Amino acid sequence: MKTIPTDQLAVSVLDPKKAEELSARGIDVRKGVFDHPETLDAAFAGVDRILLVSADGDNETRIRQHANAVAAAERAGVGFIAYTRLATAQESTNLFAPTHQAMENAILKTGIPYSFLRNNWYLENDISSIQGVLAGVPWVTSAGDGKVGWALQQDYAEAAAAVLAGSGHENTVYELSVKPLTQEEIASALGTVLEKEVPVLQLDDAAYAEAMSGAGVPDFVIPILLAIQKSIREGSLDVESNDFEKLLGRPATPINEVLAQIVKGLTTTG
Q1: 6-120+152-177+239-251 with 121-151+178-238+252-270: one CATH topology?
Q2: Which CATH architecture has domain 121-151+178-238+252-270?
Q3: What is the pLDDT along the chain (270 residues), one digit of tens a residue?
Q4: Of 117, 171, 189, 206, which has the maximum CB count within 10 A?
């Protein structure tokens, strides 16, 4: 993979003090706040190629903040925008889809060359489920037979870096996914890593919400988890693609290796 000297890199963050490690490596750390466009003008100044990562918050907030970021990139004369977003964005019924659809459309309207990196699902999103299994409880889900293209955040990050540092990616869409797995299949893979059987508890949404509440999940988070389970059940993440291999020159890290890395991190912490 092509690399870029750190003195040619800049990063926009909410709090530069939290990115001192990057500063120490020679990266230009700038403050940028999506709800304060003037900070984005300074953060994006002199930047030729930019990676925009979606913000947190409800859909209305994210759409507003994303629009601010795209407008700032256009004002700054950015020559290329890469954007990480959701699988099959324009067709998806996932609860997060409207923000990504709006962002893609906003970027297209600028006429700036782009690459949309449609990330399927970070396995790290399910660390709490893995922790539960390590504690002796089943893999709990209401996703039914729905499949997910789980991959490691590091693989997604390297794919984005390849697009930013490489050439020939103008006006492209990459569906970054692997062979999708069911909940039973991911639990079986985890069982192989742990050398034990991992039971799967398939619940309806009401029972799943009750289980999450009993596990201490905050009430405001439970509807989000239910919506995610529903979207998986309906097939929104059932996308298979070889785009990782196109960008990385290799397949994404095999699922058993990914799970082994996560388990090792969880069991050696502290």
Answers
A1: no
A2: Alpha-Beta Complex (3.90)
A3: 678 899 999 999 999 999 999 999 999 999 999 999 999 999 999 999 999 988 777 788 888 999 999 999 999 999 999 999 766 544 555 666 778 788 899 999 999 999 999 999 999 999 999 999 999 999 999 999 999 999 999 999 999 999 999 999 999 999 999 999 999 999 999 999 999 999 999 999 999 999 999 999 999 999 989 999 999 999 989 999 999 999 999 999 999 999 999 999 999 865
A4: 117
For residue 3, what are its two tokens?
A: 């690399």
Quickly count helices (H) and strands (E) in the chain: 11, 10
According to DSSP, the β-strands at 121-122 and 200-202 are unpaired
| CATH tag, 6-120+152-177+239-251 | 3.40.50.720
SS3 79: coil
